[in-house]
């Protein structure tokens, strides 16, 4: 059920996957599986579980936990937003997800013996290990604990509450006070607990970036998630040892609900995309060394850079708006732009609001919601346009393009294009990387032409971190590997 980066950071502390990602470069390394083999044709992956791996309550982690967790993940009743990370790859999984069969034995997920898992694919997926290593969709859950509090496919039960929760990672849940703190402590039953150096990690939620920065200055927190945009240059100048601006594999965009007028007209969407001065936005508002985005895919991602770009002038934008029936913005209804509560999102939205008013005569109403409410509005498509972004779930160009397939759990634009859908699966069947990347070029070109989302910039990750924090490895996905971190007095 997890959808966002903040939740992912907590999951990283509480769970470990079959395969983990190296903290520095994210390449797959052994996790709960000590080893694996891939068949010569690339269709069968065989994973061997470590001996004596345990849940945080001391009970054994079994192959059944994995199989039933994967069954839950692709259950149509659960309707997980990330089910496609299994059903688009695994033999028979799409039919199970779509309800064409209820026989899980027909799905290419097996346990030949109590210590072995076997995954059979529709076609060779060269980045599958990266998916498993970097994304929690493939993690096992403590099935006996889930069933103690409800059915396997229930979306929300009390199994996640402190006191009930059981995990497989280096830490275990001690306390969860909503809107106040989540506390995790070292898991003595974790297979590699001897190499875990932190005793506790406290996660403190806040939507007030200024308050977060004040807490950092008061030594109440050791690492921030963000920095007030107005403070970035100050820290660069006065405290360079505390500020970090790391590469971050993601794109910040505005998502259009293409079922709601006037954003159901691609000419309106494209006019809006052309009327944003991205360089000015980065220079005058964000200050974090971001790069302007004129396509969805992040350039240089595992050797792939999109050729397609949003190109055109303000005159082109005005012409498109006139062709759509709104010359000079006349007659165009006010568009509501939703963003999750954040001073940075507000400043960016206000800057873009003014650009669209000045350049196109378009009126934008801004609406902010706290994170949980915002995610619900997104999931139920209760928005006209929303601030969003996509942070890579794994390091491969496929990750930025698969989410726009019709019916994908994360395609919250409701945009649909049959040619694009076909290309998604052609890419998965491509005979080599060069062929696959050329298919992605076609997909990026369609997105640039249709603009279901309006890309703004490619992320960096500006944050503050105490010099006491050691063993922290910055990486392209901002995955904090708490297992390797320690504190120095």
In a few lines, what is going on in this structure?
Helices cover 30% and strands 20% of the residues.
Supply the key terms.
about 500 residues; alpha+beta; 6-stranded mixed β-sheet
Q: What does the model show?
A:
The protein is α+β, with helices and mostly antiparallel strands and 489 residues long. Helices cover 30% and strands 20% of the residues. It is built from 16 helices and 17 strands. A 6-stranded mixed beta sheet has the order 11-15-10-14-12-13. It has a 4-stranded antiparallel beta sheet with strand order 3-4-6-5, covered by helices on one side. Strands 7-8-9 form a 3-stranded antiparallel beta sheet, covered by helices on one side. Helix 15 runs antiparallel to helix 16. It starts with a helix and ends with a strand. The mean pLDDT is 97.
Which blocks of ≥5 consecutive residues have pLDDT under 50? none
Distance between the termini: 38 Å
In this structure, how is the largest beta sheet organized?
Answer: 6 strands, mixed
Strand order of the largest sheet: 11-15-10-14-12-13
Number of strands: 17
- Averaged pLDDT, please? 97
């Amino acid at each position: 059920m997890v959808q966002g980066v903040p939740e992912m950071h907590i999951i990283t502390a509480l769970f470990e996957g079959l395969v983990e990602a190296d903290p520095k470069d994210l390449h797959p390394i052994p996790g709960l599986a000590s080893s694996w083999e891939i068949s010569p044709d690339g269709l069968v992956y065989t994973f061997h579980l470590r001996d004596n791996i345990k849940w945080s309550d001391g009970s054994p982690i079994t192959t059944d936990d994995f199989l039933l967790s994967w069954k839950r993940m692709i259950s149509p009743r659960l309707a997980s937003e990330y089910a496609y990370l299994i059903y688009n790859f695994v033999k028979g999984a799409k039919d199970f997800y779509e309800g064409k069969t209820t026989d899980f034995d027909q799905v290419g997920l097996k346990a030949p013996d109590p210590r072995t898992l076997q995954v059979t694919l529709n076609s060779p997926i060269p980045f599958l290990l990266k998916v498993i290593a970097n994304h929690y969709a493939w993690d096992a859950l403590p099935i006996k604990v889930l069933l103690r509090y409800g059915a396997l496919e229930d979306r929300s039960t009390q199994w996640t509450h402190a006191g009930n929760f059981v995990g497989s990672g280096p830490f275990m849940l001690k306390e969860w006070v909503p809107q106040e703190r989540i506390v995790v402590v070292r898991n003595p039953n974790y297979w590699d607990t001897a190499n875990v150096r932190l005793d506790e990690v406290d996660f403190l939620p806040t939507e007030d970036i200024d308050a977060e920065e004040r807490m950092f200055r008061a030594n109440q927190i050791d690492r921030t998630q963000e920095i007030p945009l107005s403070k970035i240059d100050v820290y660069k100048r006065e405290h360079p040892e505390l500020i970090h601006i790391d590469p971050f594999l993601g794109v910040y965009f505005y998502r259009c609900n293409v079922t709601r007028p006037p954003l159901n007209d691609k000419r309106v969407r494209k006019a809006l995309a052309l009327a944003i001065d991205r360089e000015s936005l980065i220079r005058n508002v964000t200050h974090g060394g971001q790069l302007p985005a004129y396509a969805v895919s992040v350039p240089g991602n595992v050797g792939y850079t999109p050729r397609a770009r949003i190109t055109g002038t303000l005159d082109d934008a005005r012409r498109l708006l006139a062709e759509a029936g709104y010359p000079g913005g006349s007659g165009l209804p006010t568009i509501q732009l939703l963003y999750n509560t954040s001073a940075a999102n507000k400043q960016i939205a206000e800057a873009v609001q003014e650009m669209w008013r000045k350049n196109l005569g378009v009126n934008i109403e801004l609406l902010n919601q706290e994170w949980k409410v915002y995610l619900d509005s997104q999931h139920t498509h209760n928005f006209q346009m929303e601030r969003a972004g996509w942070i890579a779930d794994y390091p491969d160009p496929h990750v930025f393009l698969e989410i726009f397939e019709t019916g994908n759990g994360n395609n919250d634009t409701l945009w649909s294009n049959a040619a694009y859908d076909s290309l998604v699966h052609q890419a998965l069947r491509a005979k080599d990387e060069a062929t696959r990347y050329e298919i992605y070029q076609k997909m990026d070109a369609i997105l640039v032409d249709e603009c279901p989302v309006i890309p703004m910039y490619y992320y960096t990750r500006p944050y503050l971190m105490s010099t006491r924090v050691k063993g922290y490895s910055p990486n392209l996905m901002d995955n904090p590997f708490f297992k390797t971190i320690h504190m120095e007095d």
